């Protein structure tokens, strides 16, 4: 059975936290594929767009911290309860299947599902270039985010590597 990315694809995005990677919060993705590490990025098929068929999907997981200030956290969460339509339109145009964000205290976890083999960096650029509001959103969200322990100065979202997977077939 083939899955088709349609105009109405749910661009969930950061509804609980995250500062959008959506329109392109430049992320650091793994550059090599090894074993069953489904969080690594492949760099083929960079032209995935709305209406493109995909039979397989891959999941990427990213983490970032939110600024430890309750008033700013409330503001950040409020933004994500009212995502700008231009941002989700950018996700759709770039070919994202799903983007979701979860939060535990100050840790945000974003899960992105994209067509297998798609280039996540290219997709992010397409989304951000789709409308100036996407770049504006990223700049706005950036002020709320801080890198997790072990990241380089200025680095925000980092990709988490999968080390265990169970599937009930």
TrEMBL record:
One of its GO terms (molecular function) is racemase and epimerase activity, acting on carbohydrates and derivatives. PROSITE patterns: PROKAR_LIPOPROTEIN. This is L-rhamnose mutarotase. It comes from Arachidicoccus ginsenosidivorans. It comes from the Bacteria. Pfam families: rhaM.
